[in-house]
Amino acid sequence: MSKVILVTGANSGIGFELTRLLAERGHTVYLGARNPVAGQEARDKLHANGIKGVKFVELDVTKLTTIVAAKEVIQKAEGRLDVLVNNAGISLMDQPQAPSTVDLAIVREAFEPNFFGLIQTTTTLLPLIRAAPNGVILNVSTDMASNTLQARPEAGLHFAAYNTSKAAANSYTIALSHDLRKQGIKVNAVTPGYTSTKLNSFGEGGKSVKAGAEILLPWALLDKDGPTGLFIDEHGKESPW
Ligand SMILES: NC(=O)c1ccc[n+]([C@@H]2O[C@H](COP(=O)([O-])OP(=O)(O)OC[C@H]3O[C@@H](n4cnc5c(N)ncnc54)[C@H](OP(=O)(O)O)[C@@H]3O)[C@@H](O)[C@H]2O)c1
Asked: Which are the catalytic amino acids?
């Protein structure tokens, strides 16, 4: 069955590639982007490559008015949302994030899209997800959000703003999965693993955006018997929270 899917932050990186993979499989995909020019260009690029079924929708996860407007567009055209992929995020890795000296403004800036924005996007769109027969919410997470992994002595990359904002989003994922379990809506967090994108200044040695998106793909397309309340690593295995 063709699904109606919204991917936030889909004008670039992993979200863009996931949009491509989903549309190639015949689904109707709303390509969410906060910058309308970038969003329309991304949609046009897919259309130019013969990929149909992608619709651009302006959506800044930190601006409630744009989320409400996007919900109305999808409501009017589709009447439901089968899958929400909360992919939009920032790392601010170009800013100092040492835990003992981090500027609180940086922490707040990271929390805006990665945590508060994810929650308000989810709660605003939830009525549309409830209208779907088999609702799925996929929160794009990171290994660096795993408190268990980060607590190990050998762990590195302790970015005080990025890690905490994504760990908070993981905590929300757990709570939401419990809340929606009885209604049959699946809520999971999945990490694509280290992927070379704008988010890490196209860091060396990362996987391609296609490989990153392929890790997320089955978790967006879960069937009605699929699991909920899991944190999944880049190998498709359960990760410690
Ligand atoms: N790359 C990795 O190694 C890696 C690893 C684990 C998890 N992740 C996660 O993967 C997700 C996608 O990141 P990426 O690596 O593909 O980086 P990316 O290319 O920078 O993509 C991030 C996307 O989020 C958008 N965005 C940022 N703030 C937004 C807002 N307020 N409202 C709506 N969209 C917003 C960006 O839009 P603009 O283009 O307008 O900035 C961009 O489209 C993120 O959640 C990230 O935490 C990435």
From this structure: 162
Measure Cα distances from 181 to 7, 11, 225 in Å. 22, 31, 12
Q: Which residues line ligand 1 (CB under 6 A)?
A: 8-9, 11-15, 34-35, 38, 60-62, 87-90, 113, 117, 140, 142, 191-192, 194-195, 197-200, 206
> Ligand 1 centre and the CA of 182: distance in Å?
31
Best probe residue, ligand 1, of 19, 91, 199 (max atoms within 8 Å of C-beta): 199
Q: Are 161 and 107 in contact (CB under 8 A)?
A: yes
Q: What is the mean pLDDT of residues 14-30?
A: 98
pLDDT of residue 99: 98
| 175: nearest Cα among 110, 100, 115, 237 | 115
pLDDT at residue 4 tops 90? yes
Contact between 172 and 116 (Cβ < 8 Å): no
Q: Is the pLDDT of residue 212 over 90?
A: yes
The whole-number average pLDDT for the span 81-109 is 98
1 has a pLDDT exceeding 90: no
Domains of the chain, first to last: 4-232 (3.40.50.720)
Q: Which of 192, 184, 160, 187 is nearest to 171 (CA)?
A: 187
Q: How far apart are CA 60 and CA 88, in angstroms?
A: 9
